[in-house]
Amino acid sequence: MAARERSYRCAVCRWQGMAEPIDVGDAAPCPECGVYLYPQTWASTWGFALLLIAASLGVVAVAALLLR
Q: What span, in angstroms and rounded, lies between the C-alpha atoms of 16 and 29?
C-alpha cells in the first residue's frame, strides 16, 4: 500500500477500495465509472459499529445494575 492511499466508496457504482488521491483535496477518480471520490473518514467507516458496541455495553451495564 502506498503512503498516500486512502479508503474510498463510490456512491454511483458502489465500488469500494483503496486509491491514491490525485490532488491536494484528496479526491480520486473512481476506477469503475470515473466519478470523483472523496475519502471516507474514520467516523463514517467505523461510526455505526462503535454506536452498536456502545449500546451493547450500555445494555449490559444496566442489566448488571438491575440484577444486583
A: 12
pLDDT in tens, 6-28: 889 998 999 999 988 887 778 89
DSSP of 1-54: --TT-EEEE-TTT--EEEE--SSTT--EE-TTT--EE-PPPHHHHHHHHHHHHH
Q: What is the mean pLDDT of the chain?
A: 87
Extract the C-alpha cell encoding 43.
467516523
**28 grid coordinates:** 480520486
Beta bridge partners of 17: 8
> Alpha helix locations (H) across the chain?
42-66
Amino acid at 38: Y
Answer for the pair 6, 24: CB distance below 8 angstroms, yes or no: no
State pTM to two decimals. 0.56
User: How far, in Å, CA of 37 to CA of 7, rounded?
Assistant: 10
